[in-house]
Amino acid sequence: MTVGVGAGAAHLGVDRVVDLGPLHPAAHGAYRLRLAVSGPADDPVITSATPLVGHLHRGAEKLFEVRDYRQILALANRHDWLAAFCNEMAVAMAVERMLGMTVPDRASWLRTAFCELNRALALVVFLAPVAEAGGRGPRHVAARDGLVRARESVQRVLEEAAGGRIHFMANRVGGLREDVPAGWRDGVRAALDVVARGLDAARSVTVSDGDFRHRHRGLGVLTTGAALRLGVTGPAGRAAGVDLDLRRDDPGPAHAELGVTPRLGTRGDALDRVECMLDDADQALRLVRSCLDRLPPGPVNLRLPKAVKPPEGSVYVWTEAPLGVTGVHLVSRGDRTPWRLKLRTPSFNNVQALSPLLVGCRVADLPTVLASFAVVVGDIDR
């Protein structure tokens, strides 16, 4: 983090720009926070915060409109690389709904297992710096290393099934590209054990640690009203008391049978957000195990015509991605390419909540608050 300070910064009420870097042409993205601060120069307090986004503007939505329905799935997972499978599945589901398709049962259960593995992967990535920031002792280093091992174990089994480490490209219109390899379920169960150990270590140095709870309680409060007004979803929204989880409220066939019980926060602060991320990760492990135990036999895709042409009309599909609601509004004119494809993505929507939740925070607490509020910058600049 670098701080650009204007002239007269030693005085009160100076406008400062905090850049979250590195701002390098090869970096995956950048956003800036414009902070107005007041109070003592050695311990200022934030009085207003404005996220400044759109530095790269990848133009993902327009790229969808010049590729056919088979090709667009290659674009669907690149703006949020920590929710790659969930994103491509949402686009595939939108096309399938317009075509009136029902994917095979095995594909539906495997999709659910992949989504929950993707959720666990994303959350351990965000929890690793939170665990390490709690201190520099052996327990904190062990917790960070445990979460790194957890991430690698999940990425390994996803790569074995899909062939890609980051951009999985496992979905296709009508199901999945191919079935999982022999012995894959045993590998997943072993990976889940690694993740469970990593989460236990992370919990011991975060929400189960008295010092951590004291430091994070009351920091970066997002009220339920503000979260509802801004449409904040996912762990950040549930930490603020927004009782919404599409896996429970609008489930697919597999989630409807598994049952999801999300944790709701009561304070909407940094501590609640960390607790909700840990709870989501724990629940993801339980759901994956249930999917593996109940995975039915059969095909994983449907036979498609050479040219996929949904009928004229529109459809909206949403799903619960790791950081919140991902929605796809697809409009077709009966051609081989979408006429319009609009994305509703969690990071782009949630980042605006930084404006209310940072007000009143000390500048010294800014890294702690931001670490508890997970966003993917590529999704902001989609």
From TrEMBL:
Q: Which UniProt keywords apply?
A: NAD, Quinone, Translocase, Transport
Q: Which SUPFAM superfamilies match?
A: HydB/Nqo4-like
Q: Name one Pfam family in it.
A: Complex1_49kDa
Q: What InterPro entries does UniProt report for this protein, alphabetically?
A: NADH_Q_OxRdtase_suD, NADH_UbQ_OxRdtase_49kDa_CS, NDH1_su_D/H, NiFe-Hase_large
PROSITE patterns to which the protein is assigned, alphabetical: COMPLEX1_49K
Which residue ranges does the record assign to the NADH-quinone oxidoreductase subunit D domain?
148-310
Q: Does the keyword Ribonucleoprotein apply?
A: no
As for family, the record states: Belongs to the complex I 49 kDa subunit family.
State the name under which the record lists this protein. Answer: NADH-quinone oxidoreductase subunit D
The organism's taxonomy opens as: Bacteria, Bacillati, Actinomycetota, Actinomycetes, Pseudonocardiales
